[in-house]
Amino acid sequence: MNIKRRGLMLILSSPSGAGKTSIAHALLKQDSHLKNSISVTTRSKRPLETHGKDYFFITEDQFKEMLDNDELLEHAEVFGHFYGTPKKFVFEQLEMGFDVVFDIDWQGTQQIAQLAPNDLVTVFILPPDLPTLYERLKSRAQDNDEIISIRMNEAASEISHWPEYHYVIVNQAFEKSLAQIAAILTAERTRRKRQIGLAEFVNQLRQCG
Questions:
Q1: Stated pTM of the model
Q2: 83 beta partners
Q3: Most exposed: 115, 135, 138, 193, by fewest CB within 10 Å?
Q4: For residue range 19-32, what is the model confidence (pLDDT) as tens digits?
């Protein structure tokens, strides 16, 4: 029997290049009950990105309008660009029992934690070391040397927020990290507070006795 459950928000955060986006994509491929939170952003589209799949690419004026209309669950400015999560889609998915995965930074995590702490599961992903982080940023070939330097300089500040998260993993090996986060998701789904149909199910069991 399927017991009715409220969905959860799974937030993955890390310094750029530490693996949160790759892990999020892999989780989405293997788990049909997990939905992707598609953010809006004012930055330019990268070559392999698709509008409406990776991000909604909008202007700063459009972003300001969404902010003024309270349409964003969280928002942040990162490296001179604005990012935000549309609120309506996320809450609709939670009500239907789906979980939503977020690939956002500590600023967005703090905002969502204030708004919906009971729906939140947060994971901070650390790189095994800084040279590995640098090599991952170089190998993905998405940014020029100047941007990579900025991201490396920001990494220490971002990493300092690890104590704010429920779980922390070191992304030494991708498959192991993916399995760890999948296990976290499985455990969090079975929390009593999220199984909103549990009392009804138990009452039925008692009546059968």
A1: 0.84
A2: 41, 76
A3: 193
A4: 898 999 999 999 99
